[in-house]
Amino acid sequence: MIHKGQAIPAATLSELTDAGMVSHSTDDLFANKRVVLFAVPGAFTPTCSEAHLPGYVVHADQIKAAGIDTIACVAVNDAFVMHAWGEAQNASEILMLGDGNASFTKALGLEMDTADFGGIRSQRYAMVVDNGVVTHLNVEKASAFEVSNAETILDALKA
């Protein structure tokens, strides 16, 4: 599993924009920027839709005011699903990224097998990445939602 002080691995994530499909390399996403990246097990799932993403939507301005250039959400879903979920959640300030084949999630070592629920998914986590290097990482215990929420990350940014 990735740790604080390590570089984000090279991977490609997808985003559906008004101009069409965009492939983002992690090198470009994180270079010379300070990014909050959070991951959810799946778009449109209960905790993800009722608490995780909405918290980042509500606190986006405060997070950016704390020195963050980009807030990004990633899930092992395709870019079409992530785009639809972002629209449904009014997440216009959040970069909604699809990791459809879980290659990024696996490179981070943060995958989990949910078996009948959906197969390989991401663990729930949040991290701060400064110029491609992880400076803060909170990974949730199984079925928990305590340390990857927007409020906890905002508190860490203010510390």
Automatic annotation (TrEMBL):
PROSITE patterns, A to Z: THIOREDOXIN_2
Keywords: Antioxidant, Oxidoreductase, Peroxidase, Redox-active center
Domain of life: Bacteria
Domain Thioredoxin stretches: 2-159
Catalytic activity from the UniProt record: a hydroperoxide + 2 glutathione = an alcohol + glutathione disulfide + H2O
Keyword Glycosyltransferase listed: no
GO BP annotation list: cell redox homeostasis; cellular response to oxidative stress; hydrogen peroxide catabolic process
GO molecular function list: thioredoxin peroxidase activity
Chain coiled-coil ranges: none
A Pfam short name: Redoxin
Keyword 4Fe-4S: no
EC code: 1.11.1.27
Active site feature: 48 (cysteine sulfenic acid (-soh) intermediate)
Annotated InterPro entries: PRX5-like, Redoxin, Thioredoxin-like_sf, Thioredoxin_domain
Family: Belongs to the peroxiredoxin family. Prx5 subfamily.
Function of the protein: Thiol-specific peroxidase that catalyzes the reduction of hydrogen peroxide and organic hydroperoxides to water and alcohols, respectively. Plays a role in cell protection against oxidative stress by detoxifying peroxides.
Protein name (record): Glutathione-dependent peroxiredoxin
Organism: Vibrio inusitatus NBRC 102082
Taxonomic path: Bacteria, Pseudomonadati, Pseudomonadota, Gammaproteobacteria, Vibrionales
